[in-house]
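Archive entry. Fields below.
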Amino acid sequence: MIQCTRAATYDRHVPAAETPGPTGELLAQISDDGGVEFARPDRPLIRADDRAVVRGDAVFETLRAAGGRLDNESAHLDRLEGSAAAMGLPVPDRAAWTELARQVTAAWGARSEGMLRLVYSRGVEDSGRPTCLAMMSSVPESTLRHRRDGVRVVTLARGLAAADHADAPWLLVGAKTTSYAVNMAAQRHARAIGADDAIFLATDGQVLEAPTATVVWAVGKTLCTPPVEAGILDGTAVRALFRRAPEHGLSTDIRRAWVADLHAADGVWLTSSVRGAVVVTAIDGQVRGDAGLTPRVQSAAGL
Amino acid sequence: MIQCTRAATYDRHVPAAETPGPTGELLAQISDDGGVEFARPDRPLIRADDRAVVRGDAVFETLRAAGGRLDNESAHLDRLEGSAAAMGLPVPDRAAWTELARQVTAAWGARSEGMLRLVYSRGVEDSGRPTCLAMMSSVPESTLRHRRDGVRVVTLARGLAAADHADAPWLLVGAKTTSYAVNMAAQRHARAIGADDAIFLATDGQVLEAPTATVVWAVGKTLCTPPVEAGILDGTAVRALFRRAPEHGLSTDIRRAWVADLHAADGVWLTSSVRGAVVVTAIDGQVRGDAGLTPRVQSAAGL
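PREDICTED_STRUCTURE:
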């Protein structure tokens, strides 16, 4: 079923593994027949009336590629399926997505780390044919800086109650949609006031998540993160971190927290697939430490 | 500054005015030099790494074209500017947008009603060049049906408090962004449970807005709508309706409401640019009347 007639041809045009660096980019899509079709990243691929463009009506995943492999690939594809179900999108063709991710990762090569984005949109209006994309690009400079220097965060009201929104599926809580305008605006606001990133709080002050990451904090040698029932995304990076934490002498716990808990914690990190675990060096202007735990947390995060 | 070398050529390919109907569509963009550039609507125009695609990081407007003219054009362009400012997008080039809208409307012609969508996206990542689109298409069949038959609505929790979010600009309340996944999910949910559309309620039960329309209700001969300070979009259609209401023997008022107020009202309508004022025939399964006001309200709405 998987055809990839154009993949090899395209590889010759952009041999990413031979030309690593910030300008490298790979683009491919699942074609109508379920095959993988590479495209020139600098050429338009999406119609203006694609629902992703006009209505943010799409779901996505961002994965880390390193050494020619994708981290936590099946967890990301599982979540893509969950997001699609929440959005009433057709069930993604798992074999086609797996092959798409595999071919783009193979074309990217093993020598440089990459950021793979999968986008699954409802497609052109009334067409009934979803758009299925994979884009590989270099890890942004800001990501490298955050890994190295950590991030100063500000807490921002999300305007939502911390609640299990399972009885309100139209709110799409837990679905990773491309309707990220508020997430992006929160990060812009954070930067505008001299921070690097944000942590969203519920109306009762409860800690939710960062715009593009999960919040993790340490109480002694226990890593904690809020429950997805607080109304947050099920983070793939935090899952991987928690799975490996015991090997690094750390226990884990799922618990609700308020800002005071973060201030009182021994360390606070933001975990996401490409940044890994970045240490929070200040919250709302209050500088904080990490009890020397960051190297161990980053190792457990697999980065 | 405005160049439109390709507009005339394209008009000859798709003479929309000669071929009205559901398949008619026109697409144009503001080119790098500020001119108007027509494109084939069935060809990809957007790069996969456009922020509109990957992050719903764009604003939009939907206008009604009739008789070769756009309804409330300057109000829509004003709101586009406001949305852009809220999103930290570059100030839109008003002259270029006006010319874009003018040329697409002229190419569409006067014989058939059209729906013009303007999309202003942050553009390709790190390019610093926004994407500026105009798409004209026929009025959807569902819109015609809603105008004729009205809509049955269900009230759905929006998860947000009714509040002036001016102190939380990152929430983008009042900005018409393309991050509409929740709006679309609410309409899907409404249809799934046998209704046609939804009305969002705040956490205190206060009436907010519909996913793509403003809520208007009548108390006697007074048309009412919630204040934008409730955390809703500033509707261009309701503004036009309220401006013309006195000529039709109707007074107007801005006031907060709860579902009970809608049930007790003499009529309830959803107002939006292309649908106009559509009468609400049922709320949460409770059938309701309009005191015979709908023809007058629709006349005042200019449709």
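CURATOR_NOTE: Residues 5-138 of chain B form a domain with the D-amino Acid Aminotransferase; Chain A, domain 1 fold (CATH 3.30.470.10).
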